Amino acid sequence: MIPIINNILERFFAKDDRLNNTQIFGYFVEEPLKDEHLTLGFSPSRIALKKRWRNNGLSADFIAEYLTTFFPRDTHEDSKTNTKSEIKSAVSYIANELLENAIKYCDANVEYPITLHLELQSNEVRIFINNSVTASGVEKFKSFIKELSDSNPDEFYLRQLEKNAEDENNDGSGLGFLTIVNDYCAKIGWKFQIVQHEPDLIAVTTMVQLTV
Q: Any keyword Transcription (predicted)?
């Protein structure tokens, strides 16, 4: 698995477009896939956090169930995840992690919806999550991305586990992202964009691409 992960990390790059107020890190694809797609929107401030956690799981399971309707057979000889149940489990986990992070780290002081978008074409699935983020959150996020791109993912995962064990209040470990990369061999990228000035409103889009 390590050679596969290292090959993915070799494709990590940073694209800085100051004129359009955007920065892209990692494997991020703007061009949409042309087959099936599904979009869900959420208002993070409308529902209490505990209730929202429950809704996250339901939403993740829904898009995973929706996706598997396009795979009528139980096995795919050329796929990396070769059963419908494995595809469903992978998509549900990834979608749930993205939703939890978006709700946990969104800027609670702005009215900005969280958007979850799923795309499917042939054996490729892309999952996007778009949410607001605070200025301080952006810097922490970029620091995590840089460390991920500079590290062996398995070693980085162990370091983050150790940090969590040492500090129970450590909530920025990124273990979900590391699990997505390590366990599902997914490609991942981020786009940061200033969508409003005075006051500044910063949004981040996380993209995960999975081969099924």
A: no
Determine the Cα–Cα distance for residues 56 and 40; give it in Å rounded to an integer. 11
Spatial distance between the Cα atoms of 135 and 195, rounded to a whole number of angstroms? 13
Is the pTM higher than 0.90? no
- At 121, give phi and psi (nearest 5°): -150, 120
* Residue whose C-alpha is closest to residue 134's, from 110, 113, 111, 114: 110
Which of 212, 197, 34 lies closest to 123 in space, CA to CA? 212
Which amino acid appears at position 100 of this protein?
Answer: E
The arrangement of strands across the sheet holding 14-17 comes to: 14-17, 22-26, 187-196, 201-211, 124-133, 114-121, 36-42
User: For 130-144, what is each residue's pLDDT tens digit?
Assistant: 999 998 899 999 999
Q: Output the average pLDDT for the chain.
A: 83
49, 68, 114, 122, 180 from 156: Cα distances, Å: 29, 32, 28, 32, 13
pLDDT on residue 2: 42
Range of the domain at 149: 2-211
The candidate with the shortest Cα–Cα distance to 176, out of 60, 46, 2, 23, is 60
pLDDT the model gives residue 82 = 56
Assess whether the previous peptide bond of 3 is cis (omega < 30° from 0).
Answer: no
